Amino acid sequence: MKSLKRYQYERYAVLCNLAYPRVFKQTNYGFDPNGQRIIYNRHGKVMMRVLWSKRDEEAIVVIKGSHSVADWLLNLAMWKKHTRHLGLNYPIHAGFHYLMCQESQPGYNKDKLGLSVFERLLSYVIPLIEQGKRITITGHSSGGAIGCVLADMLETRYPLSIKRIVTFGQPAIGGYRFYQRYQLANRTYRVCCDLDIVTFLPPIPLYYWHVGKMLWLHNGKIYENTPTFIRLGRSLVSWLIRPFSYHLMSRYIRNKDFFDER
What's the topology of domain 6-258? Predict the structure, then answer.
């Protein structure tokens, strides 16, 4: 697996952080004036941004994490639902399944009514793929989790269309069947910051599995694929004191200097 270079990490971390404000001026970050499409959730709130420029072969999908009480409550729906309608063959976390399959409110004049979030995403990225662009998906928290499944869906429909997946503070989304059948493990980077307790969720051992290469930012160093029990052992005391302080995107921005070009 190729390493995630420092400049790549910085770019994706910054974009993830900037996905949360309501207004995002994409031209300030090298994208075209018409190089942004916004995907809204059922309430008309920004959920994803698709960003691109004509001169770059990479288009980037940025996915926000849970940003409402209702979204956070969906984290508790820890049973599983199948993904056959996505063209995949494994069950995933029911709450995150709902986030992808909820109705997406139209945002542009040509948008059709009645499309789900994943269908809206397809309507924006398929033309970019047909233009020869490869897709990078990056997301924070639940956005990173559903990003893995959406990337797998796109890769199934359009082989080699996915360049990489970079997630920040991501909980697990699937079980062992997902772990076995996920196609993009060698292009997936799961960044965990210090003692972020969300990266250990859902708290059901062996029922949920992570995929890809784990990069752990801890005490000024980067650790690769550190066993869960070691990270968890170092996390418990801090979690009792500051349970979610390490989950904020600002922590990931702070730690961008840990990455070296390799």
Answer: Rossmann fold (3.40.50)
